[in-house]
Amino acid sequence: MSEDFELDTDDLTRRMDGSMSNLRTEFASLRTGRASASMLEPVQVEAYGQMTPINQVGTVNVPEPRMVTINVWDKGLVGKVEKAIRESGLGINPQLNGTIIMLPIPELNEERRKELTKVAAQYAEHARVAIRNVRRDGMDKIKKAKADGMSEDDQKLWEAEVQDLTDTYIKKVDEALETKQEEIMQV
């Protein structure tokens, strides 16, 4: 049976890529002093009886580097969108102009920049944990195969491969975090 064991490293890689993708999305939502439509991605609005992403209730534009606008399609949702932005923790004060909500992006002060680097570090730690969970799943499969008759040499070979994959992705997380923190601290 041991000769038949083949760990699906493609599956492990795909799952670790998913963790990296999620980390990039979370990083994109962090404000760096520049306007970006992606900073509103995590904000959900109560619309038509369910929680809905902002980009599904209006058009999000970035007309200038320090301004985001949302053209809400349904007049009845303008107040809910404004409330969702205020309560999102983005630190942005929305201004209404009919069905258009303008979000002026203030300069980040030093204290807020440091807070954002800590948030980025938390996001990175969540990604590391997710990657380690994928590693643990792979190691568990190897241990099960060992119990089913895999040789110790094969076990060590597979474990080394899973560990190398894990180390590669942890390094990618650390590099992404370092880049994001530099971006945040840039004045």
Automatic annotation (TrEMBL):
Cited CDD domains: RRF
Protein family: Belongs to the RRF family.
Cleaved signal peptide residues: none
InterPro entries referenced in this protein's UniProt entry, alphabetically: Ribosome_recyc_fac (IPR002661), Ribosome_recyc_fac_dom (IPR023584), RRF_sf (IPR036191)
SUPFAM superfamilies: Ribosome recycling factor, RRF
Function field: Responsible for the release of ribosomes from messenger RNA at the termination of protein biosynthesis. May increase the efficiency of translation by recycling ribosomes from one round of translation to another.
Cellular component GO terms held in the UniProt record: cytosol
Keyword terms, alphabetized: Cytoplasm, Protein biosynthesis
Gene Ontology biological process terms in this record: cytoplasmic translational termination
Top-level taxon: Bacteria
Protein name: Ribosome-recycling factor
Subcellular location: Cytoplasm
Any Pfam family: RRF
Keyword flag Metal-binding: no
MF term (GO), any: ribosomal large subunit binding
